[in-house]
Amino acid sequence: MSKILIPAQRRERIQEYLTLHKIVPSSKLSELLDVSEATVRRDLEWLEAEGLLERTHGGAILSERIRFEPEYLQRAGRNIDEKRAIGKAAADLIKNGDIVFINSGSTTTQLIHQIRKDADITIVTNNIQAAVDLGEVKYELILLGGVLQPKSHSVAGRFAIENLNQVYADKAFVSVDGISIKYGCTVPSMVEAELIRQMLERTHGETNLLSDHSKWGVISNFEIARINQFHRVITDDGLDEHACATLANRVELIKVSSNPS
User: Fold this and answer.
1) What pTM, to 2 d.p., does this model score?
2) CATH of domain 7-62
């Protein structure tokens, strides 16, 4: 007979499992802890109240918090194959004649790298890094003005917002630092959040969220939108199936292979 764990021990085991796996169904915890799913549900409610996890339909995800904006180069080196694959899938959605909003970030930089240089489109972006990387292109690239954001290699602020207010886009492609069912899509920078919200507001067509699997369950300080405010989420095959099912109930989901071969 298995040793009966007291609530504090069960909750510690749940946290240990989530630290390793990031996401877990209640049925798995019930099996691991040898308790009923009702008991698991009460433990998850307690841990959620402590801000240690976020309950989802049929399970939970680890809550990770980003309070400060990470350096661009630090982010750019993570999950590069996944970001490249997501960028390629997003680029395939852009058609000739489109006016496109793209924000700053390592994933959206990969998107801009993947767009055909002879495409008949207009890109409006605050992504300085991508603009520097591009070299010569035949499409129109409009770089927003604004206050330099050194950590993200971008511009933002009131001047950038005023620039955006002169344009309507057919499509928007944005990346964020965290995605949470409860807390929405978040970033650590207030000025970047304001700029992304304005991009979404001034897009009269499809809005696309680009996110590799590591952003799932992460929470930062400033919300830019709820998940279901996007038309589509593009992610990689590292995202857990339970998380995919949770997203697919709210938004169109495209999951791409991150295998470079």
Assistant:
1) 0.78
2) 1.10.10.10
